[in-house]
Model the fold of this input.
Amino acid sequence: MKNQWRIVITILLVIVVAVFAILNVESVPVSFGFTTVHWPLILILLVSILIGAVLMILFSTITVFQHNRAYKDLEQASQEQLAALQKENDQLTKRLQNSKSKQVTGQQEKQVQELQAQIADLQKQLATK
Done:
């Protein structure tokens, strides 16, 4: 629907320019500084419109290229940052696993010592009976 309105507006603008052209066919002098020429007014208007359209397209194309380059730079920076965060996450996960395994090992050693103490107490109790 949005593109249809653009087409309608473009057609209306073309019709307005065509009517304007029909109404302005007389020759007018145009001075370029070093020479003066007599051209139809509509030709001057159409050339001016064409130059304006070319400049608009040129500037918009430059802006689009700048935005695309900035987008690519941001995307690359975010990918690098994501990779760095993933690497840091992996390192922290390994440290956490090592810490947990050390805690488990410490708990197991404590349990072994407790069991050995219980065995020693039971042996003493058997020896006294």
